[in-house]
């Protein structure tokens, strides 16, 4: 995850054009993953993912000099925030008639639950565990759909995107302790829904 960003940022600050190009390439790859996870299905039918990625890159690197001077947060968190802002703007542009609240909330894509289940199924230590997870995919998908938006958000970030608690706290602009409690509560609700739907065992 942009593992080489820090040294590249130092070189960018010193005026190294080659480092800037390398950072843009790494950023594009990371943004593709973020947009895949975050882009709502209804927006995906009207806008290409590549357009969101390109617009986010353009906005990000138009402000890169200010960022490398201040470094208010880790670079990948800043990139992710910029992508989220671009998704919000695109959502407003294409769905002006919808009665949406003017905040940073963007509906999660329909395939979010599938991405979550895939990430969980890959964690099985042996083929038998992976098979069990595969057979339970539909239950987990339905249970995830029952969660409130903020619960879906934090479960997806932690379980599917692999973000740390500290990173989630930075993205949501809340204390790490609050982020941890929110994630724990979301998991409890998710496990409750999976049990109601007939999934036995420890669940997600």
Describe this structure in a few short sentences.
This protein has 204 residues and is an all-alpha fold. The protein contains 12 helices and no strands.
Structure description:
- The chain is mainly α.
- The chain has 2 domains: 5-94, Orthogonal Bundle (Rna Polymerase Sigma Factor, Chain: A); 112-196, Orthogonal Bundle (Arc Repressor Mutant, subunit A).
- 72% of the residues lie in helices and 0% in strands.
- It contains 12 helices and no strands.
- Helix 4 (49-62) crosses helix 6 (75-94), helix 7 packs antiparallel against helix 8 (127-135) and helix 11 crosses helix 12.
- The protein is globular and about 60 Å long.
- Residues 97-104 and 124-131 have low confidence and may be disordered.
Topology summary:
Elements: H1 5-13, H2 17-38, H3 41-44, H4 49-62, H5 64-70, H6 75-94, H7 112-121, H8 127-135, H9 137-146, H10 149-160, H11 165-172, H12 176-196
Q: Indicate the structural class.
A: mainly alpha
Q: How far apart are the first and last residues' alpha carbons, in Å?
A: 24 Å
Q: Low-confidence parts lasting 5 or more residues at pLDDT below 50? A: 97-104, 124-131
Q: How many distinct folded domains?
A: 2
Q: Percent of residues in helical segments?
A: over 70%
Which of globular, elongated, flat, extended, rod-shaped describes the shape? globular
Family: Belongs to the sigma-70 factor family. ECF subfamily.
GO molecular function, one term: DNA binding
Keywords: DNA-binding, Sigma factor, Transcription, Transcription regulation
Domain RNA polymerase sigma factor 70 region 4 type: 138-190
């Amino acid at each position: 995850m942009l593992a080489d960003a820090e040294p590249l940022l130092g070189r960018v600050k010193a005026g190294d054009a080659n480092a800037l190009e390398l950072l843009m390439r790494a950023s594009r790859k990371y943004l593709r993953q973020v947009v895949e996870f975050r882009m709502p299905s209804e927006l995906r039918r009207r806008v290409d993912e590549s357009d969101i990625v390109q617009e986010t890159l353009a906005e990000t690197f138009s402000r890169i000099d200010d960022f490398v001077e201040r470094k208010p947060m880790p670079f990948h968190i800043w990139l992710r925030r910029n992508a989220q802002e671009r998704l919000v703007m695109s959502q407003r542009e294409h769905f002006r008639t919808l009665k949406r609240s003017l905040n940073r909330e963007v509906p999660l894509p329909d395939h979010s639950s599938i991405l979550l289940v895939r990430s969980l199924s890959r964690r099985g230590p042996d083929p038998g565990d992976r098979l069990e997870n595969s057979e339970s995919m539909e239950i987990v998908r339905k249970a995830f759909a029952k969660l409130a938006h903020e619960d879906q958000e934090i479960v997806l970030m932690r379980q599917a995107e692999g973000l740390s608690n500290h990173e989630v706290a930075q993205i949501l602009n809340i204390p790490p302790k609050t982020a941890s409690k929110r994630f724990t509560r979301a998991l409890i609700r998710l496990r409750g829904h999976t049990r109601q739907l007939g999934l036995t065992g420890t669940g997600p």
